[in-house]
Amino acid sequence: MMVGDGSGAGVVDAVGVVTFAAQAGRMARSEINHPRRAIPDRDLLCSASLRRAMSQRPPRVGCYIAEPKRWAERSIGMGMRVRAVGVAILCVSTGLLAACSSHTDSFRPVRPPTTPLSTPTPTPPPPTVAATATSAPSPATTGLTGASIRPESVTFVSSDDGWVLGLSMCGHAACLRLAKTLDAGRTWAWVSTESLSSLSVSAQWELRFADSEDGWISGPRLYSTHDAGRVWTRIALAGLEAPNSSVGALEAADGRVYAEVAEGIEPNTLGPVVLFGSRTDSDAWYSVQSVTTGPAGFAGNISVAQGVFWLSLHPAIVTPQDSESLSTLYRSVDGITWRSEPQPCPSHSVATVAASTADRVFVVCADGLAAGSEGKTAYRSDNGGATYAAVADPPLGGDFEEVSAASSSVSVAASSGATEIYTSFDGGLTWLTTLTIGDAGLGLSELGFTTASQGVAIHGQTDYPDSLQLWMTRDGGRQWLAVPVNPR
Fold it and tell me: How does DSSP classify residue 398?
């Protein structure tokens, strides 16, 4: 998520991970989407960041066994439902890296038309909650009221100014609403907009703002605002034309916004994934042609610090016999040109990147699922990714979900029987458990830092609205507190 650092850094963290071995023909997705990684024994198991690569984001629960017409399910932080039909193994091919040489990328402008969603009302009418003594709430509305928001995404542009997007009640039905804070989440106010009425409440959406005016809602489709969230316009992006396309990751900093778009063409991975960009104050999006997975693959994550963008992508091919996972990293030091960069993770693991400063970057490699745990190897570079040094491994417990870095700390989120945040305050030499939520592994969907001391996280799943909760830290990640969103 787009966040800043005390010295002007922006620490951005989405989700990344991918390629997997699976007996799956076409993936049955519901609402959110994110591929998982390859496991050498060819079982499609679940771990964390499985949500941003496909077109519509499926419920973040699921564990899959590679047997025809069978699928198992368990509650995890971020997964997807895959119905096994036929036999196909998803894997990464080193041949796809031919286009990943260390050259400077060029842009091909794409200026699609935009279509306003609707005209906003001047003031937000307070929603009313209609309930009867004899009618029980459905699971989709459990815990929802018209006086509060259950956040599914959060974004801050300064330590004080931030927004949440989440579920609320509008009359008898669940709806998506937007709220803003000007005092670091201590109080919230409704943002007046009718434009969100066309967004499905069953999909998971991600909210990002670059400044006080320019923001985006991404998921199965992409929307923008340039008036602080009052009017949202759908962006007719070329890569989002297919029914199964989606935005896998989106972050903004220093007048530029970038999105990893899964174009939904390849039926097994819903790739290719292509990077698109725009200035933050306009909707003139262009494709970055050489930043792509190739024909098949999954989105990764985007991270920004002090004006330097990093991103990961996960190329894949379909083969009936074997699987191999591989991640690719890209960097832009000026927010305009992109270069492929080496990454330190072993070929059988999946890399997720977290920028700390312009020079310091962390890479976490996830590999080796076991009952309630997953191997996590961490590396740190202090010279812009030229060289990496292994640091201490984050704790084994839980399936990897997110990594986010501030200038003075790095945090890793994991979930299995519980949801936990592990944090290092010494550059990865030692790790502490700074948050534990006994939730049977509902997980975190977002984790990021606004400054060196202030960070945010979103806990829960949209399938279970009463589980959705904003958490904040104001001491660099040592202590996390639940923050209610009850706008006035």
Answer: B
